Each structure stands twice: as structure tokens, then as C-alpha cells.
Input
Amino acid sequence: MPIQVRERVRRRRRSEFNLRRTALGFALVAVLLCGAGLAFRTALESAERHPVVAGVSVAALVAAAVAVLRRRRSRRAAAGAASAALEAVYEVVDTALEEVPDPEPDPEPVRSPEPAGWQDMDPYDFEEAVAALCRRDGCADAEVVGGAGDLGADVVATTPDGRRLVVQCKRYASGNRVGSQELQRFGGTCYAVHGAGAAVVVTTSTFTEPALEYAEQCGIVCVDLDGLTAWSGAGAPPPWQAVHPVEG
Output
């Protein structure tokens, strides 16, 4: 009889112990579920503004759930839950990456002035633009020297083949053509005074026929607006390549 009483006492104690552990387990699960629901609700409210943060929150909740499952279920069930959790995280991250705006396109490179802009320049800016074209095409030392007492030389440089380049710049309106008298004044100084090996006159307008005839006789290259546009757009060779030194 005493042995039977002891067995009953042990069974009662074992039942009471199991009941407490089960109650604690349910309480822990309830706390986890409440916390998970609150965190999930917060993540959903902030998902539109911070999708990446929401993804991290989901991952943390899933990790906690997987830890509980590992303690109370088999390894196979825990592995399945982990796989589903990873899929959920991937979806959140992919959504966040899709919302990232595309990068701004690179700015376009600086180009030479458009034809319509040549006549809008003041005379000094026009001389600087012509000097820049000379430097672009191999005259590294091209510089603006125009001003009072320049005797017709606005830009001077050394061509790639070693000749001294002298350029006169005429920033004129389209109706104001460069005449023969202006070419004669330049022709009287570009060789004798400046020692030009290549003489060029560049204008935003055009030349008169007498001016072109005089330039042909003296070996001066005339570049009008169309020629300037072709030169600046790399559609024509540099004007000094057409210069033929005057014999004599």
C-alpha cells in the first residue's frame, strides 16, 4: 500500500510540473505574437517611406519565430519556416530596390559655339573662341593679342608644322561684308610686321569679291560664317592648311 501512494504522489507532481511549463509556453508565445504584430504593423506603416527598414523588421520577426519553432517543433518544420521567411525578405528587398530612382544621366560634353552664337559674341569673346579653335587643332601656344596698336593681328600662334600663324578676327553682322580695303591693311602688316607664315581672316559675315581677289593674290585665307561653322564642327580642316606662302 505505501508503494502505491508514492506512485500517486509522483504522478500528481509530474502533472502539476507539466501544466506550469505549458502555461509558461503559451504565455511566451502570446508575448511573441503581440510583439510581432506590433512590429509588423509599424513596419507596414513606414514601408512606403522606408522600405528597406521594413524589410529588416520583417527579417527580425521571422528570425524570432524560427527560434521558437526550433524549440517546439521538429527541424524539418523549422527549416520550412526559415525558407518561407527568406522568401518574404527577398520580396521586400526587391520591392525596395525597384523604388530606387535611376541615376541622373551624365551631362553632355561642352561643344563649340553653335553658328547662331558667333554673331552674339562681343569682339573679344569672338577672338578668344577663335584662339580656342586654334589650340584645339594643334596650335598649343595660340593667344589673343588684339587691341589698340595690334596692327591687324588678333590671334597669333605656331602651327603644328612650325609656321607663325597670324589671324585677324572680324565679328561683323551678316549684312556687313569685309571689303578689300580691310584686307589690304591686313596684308600690309601680317607679313612685313608680324612675320606671318600663314595669314587668316575670320569673320561672322562674308567677304566682297574684290576682297577675295586680293586675298588670293597675297596668300591670305578668308573664312566666312559658313567656313567658320564647318571648322568649329570639325567638318573642315584648319584654315592654315590651305595657306600657300607667297614667293618673292
User: Anything to note?
Assistant: Residues 109-116 have pLDDT under 50 and may be disordered.
